[in-house]
Design brief:
Helices cover 47% and strands 14% of the residues. With 108 residues, it is of the alpha+beta class. Strand 1 and strand 2 form a beta hairpin.
């Protein structure tokens, strides 16, 4: 009997995915693919050599929590991961802060 709950979660994930993709797509230094069935976004930054160091900077400077991609296996080392199955208002605020960071900072 959880069909309504599941449908609401899928709709939220899709809307939030689109919000994340729209934001990241504004920055030519960001590379990503739009996920088809997930609640997280893997992305990389041109020139980034250390995803852990870059993630720590983003946490400190933009106050946005990301995970270094290497946490999810050796193939993810040049990526960062953002979970977007969040309250849309909170996600919007985080994306604004991340966008400001992307517009002004240089990755490590």
């Amino acid at each position: 009997h959880g069909e309504e709950f599941a449908a609401a979660q899928v709709a939220r994930a899709r809307a939030n995915r689109d919000m994340v993709s729209d934001t990241l797509g504004q920055f030519p230094q960001v590379q990503f693919e739009v996920p088809e069935g997930a609640f997280y976004q893997f992305f990389s930054l041109e020139g980034m050599t250390d995803s852990t160091r870059t993630v720590l900077r983003i946490i400190d400077e933009a106050k946005v929590g990301l995970a270094p991609g290497g946490t999810f296996g050796t193939g993810g080392e040049t990526f960062m991961r953002m979970c977007y199955l969040r309250d849309p208002d909170i996600l919007r605020q985080a994306l604004e802060r991340l966008g400001n960071w992307l517009a002004s900072a240089r990755p490590d």
